[in-house]
Amino acid sequence: MSKLAVLDDLLERYYQLNYHKQPELQRRLQDVQLWQKQRMQHTHAQQFAEKQNVLMSEYFLNRLYGGPDFDALAEQIARLTRYAHKAEKLIPDNAVKTGTHAIELAIFAVQLDEQVAQQLLEDYHPTEALNDEIMRVTYLKLDQGSARLKQLDMLDQLGAHLDKYMRSFIVQTAFKMCKGTAEKYRFDVMYEFMQEGFQAMKPLKSAEKFVRDFTTMERSIIERVHAGDPNPFR
Known about the structure:
- By secondary structure, the chain is mainly α.
- The chain has helices at about 5-15, 25-45, 45-50, 55-65, 70-80, 85-90, 95-125, 130-140, 145-165, 170-175, 180-185, 190-200, 205-225.
């Protein structure tokens, strides 16, 4: 069985999301994603501002928590699976494992935020500006606590994979050698997705530590939300 076969299942999950066929839901999803990013930038301002953390924080916000070009990335992943027998000869196993995990995490983030967007459409006017109180009430109503904790567990696993698998000279050399092939066969968006991850890792002594610092604070926010704290995001 192809190591890339799991990507077919992930893409099916992604394309089954309702926002693809509902423009109003898509607009509200974008509102949710923007609020999430702004909230995380504020919550983790001190961590993100440290020089060695800047690139990884940008990768988190723009890639792993819903990027604007994820549709283009999904299209390229779909094409890659059709050439799996060739791609597997070029891409190291550990890079496939780590890349697949990152893609799964990105899709899961969109899935959870879509649920929030749908609830907002049911409870508020579609153009009402989001604020902390609206989001706090919506998170409580959806009871996403367990799912959000799972998301953070997946993020911790990614941090460990980055340190364990992606820092090796062999993996990074193989990745660089793939650039010409990626451009030739129009896998540029996918290549950039992974390249940004490599670049974000370089200044860090440990990607795992960066991620754990991030998820520790996120877990405390989830706990405060579900404990009834009236200001859980501050």
